[in-house]
Design brief:
There is one protein chain. The chain contains 13 helices and 22 strands. The protein is an alpha+beta fold. A hairpin with a 7-residue loop joins strand 19 and strand 20. Helix 1 crosses helix 4. About 25% of the residues are buried.
Length: about 425
């Protein structure tokens, strides 16, 4: 069911008869065909394999939506209706992937103007047959848009919409092989760069590069071990060739400005490897992003007035205590057992950081958006220091990503 009053002009054939009675296709029809093909090629909306309950799944990949798609609402609705027609007569699940979505002011304006039309166009059966809707990787930056969309939905429809902060949580309703998120969306939780590290003997090793505000981490992707950590103050030179995916980094052998050593378990390395580091990136874009990250972290180095490592005792939900090292990166909190990363939580997934009311000097509580209960953390050092450091790191992350801090993280000092 679709109301033709909105899209009738687009559904009509813009042909006109000539003197001989034949039809001449207008240039507008040709333009419509090209733009319709662009909508289909972008594949921002598609129907995927079913859920575990055998309901079809509609996927909306927001970062594939371009501004030009929103300028002609009639053509967009026609395209959306064509896709949605496949599920109009049965129960279905709707997945909205907000990973890496960049919503410009122009897009916000276009969406705000057209949302009422979109909601009024599709008949009641589309809303009635919607089983559940899941918003994957929402952030405070995108929440304003989602709030606007929800404002046009009924209370019953809003109750069907759920936020998912870790895409793996979709596996509770959709088999892993049926989750059709782009690879970039799967890595949204945190940012790291997969590279091939070539040592002094020419041996290539797969590594993940991740940045903290003060250092560069080399991580083994299989074991999740931090193989080594180099302070940014040790970097003397970064070079790359224009037509190559390689990055060469030269470190100083002895750095008087190195300051406090990492409390992670140290890893020995070859002397040449400790001075020269050669990475082969997956693409030139990745190469450029790594170089940019090095310079951005270096530029902001002196603004970091807090430690990035903390010895803690983590108390799990069963009451078991575990000695851990919490390490702050540029976008996440690493939970480490010596040099092994046990888990990683994106700053965008931390809902609340609060000091314990009875023991604010030694205990803090962390509330993750993916969990119902808070986690108790006992700090070896002052808990207030860690809360301030974590809060500052989250606020910097939010500011850089244009997030609304007040909506994203609730920090409580006692």
């Amino acid at each position: 069911e679709i109301r033709l009053s909105l899209v009738g002009s687009e559904m009509c054939i813009r042909d006109s008869p000539n003197s001989s009675g034949t039809l001449i296709a207008s240039s507008a029809q040709h333009d419509d065909l090209i733009e319709t093909q662009a909508l289909e090629k972008a594949r921002f909306l598609f129907v995927g394999p079913p859920t575990k309950d055998n309901n079809p799944v509609v996927w909306l990949i927001v970062n594939r939506v371009k501004l030009e798609f929103l300028t002609n609402i009639n053509r967009l609705v026609t395209h959306v209706f064509k896709i949605m027609e496949e599920v109009s007569k049965s129960r279905y699940v709707f997945i909205i992937d907000m990973s890496w979505a960049t919503i410009t002011d122009e897009m916000k304006t276009a969406i705000a103007e057209n949302i009422p039309k979109m909601f009024s166009t599709f008949g009641r059966n589309y809303k009635k047959n919607l089983s559940e809707a899941y918003v994957v990787h929402p952030t405070a930056y995108t929440s304003a848009l989602l709030t606007l969309i929800r404002s046009f939905a009924s209370q019953k429809l809003r109750s069907k919409i759920h936020d998912v902060y870790n895409w793996k949580d979709l596996m509770s309703i959709i088999p892993l092989e049926n989750i059709l998120l782009p690879e970039a969306s799967r890595s949204f939780i945190t940012k790291s760069f997969q590279v091939s590290k070539v040592n002094a003997k020419g041996k290539s090793q797969t590594r993940l590069i991740k940045f903290t505000p003060k250092s560069l981490l080399n991580i083994d992707p299989k074991t999740k071990n931090i193989q080594n950590e180099r302070p940014l103050t040790e970097i003397e030179d970064v070079s790359a060739y224009f037509n190559s995916n390689e990055i060469c980094i030269r470190f100083c052998e002895n750095n008087p400005k190195e300051g406090k050593k990492s409390i992670l378990k140290s890893i020995t390395s070859n002397t040449m490897d400790s001075v020269f580091r050669r990475y082969v990136c997956e693409s030139k874009q990745e190469r450029d992003e790594i170089i940019e990250s090095i310079f951005m972290c270096g530029f902001k180095y002196d603004t970091i007035n807090f430690s990035t490592e903390f010895k803690v005792v983590k108390v799990n939900h069963a009451g078991k205590r575990q000695d851990r090292i919490f390490k702050l990166t540029t976008d996440s909190l690493l939970n480490c057992d010596e040099s092994k990363i046990q888990s990683e939580i994106s700053f965008s997934g931390i809902e609340e950081v609060s000091l314990d009311q009875d023991n604010p000097n030694d205990v803090l509580w962390l509330k993750f958006k993916s969990e119902r209960k808070k986690r108790k953390i006992i700090c070896v050092e002052n808990a207030r220091t860690m809360v301030r450091a974590l809060t500052d790191a989250i606020e910097k992350y939010n500011t850089e990503h244009l997030f609304d801090v007040s909506k994203n993280t609730n920090v409580i000092f006692v």
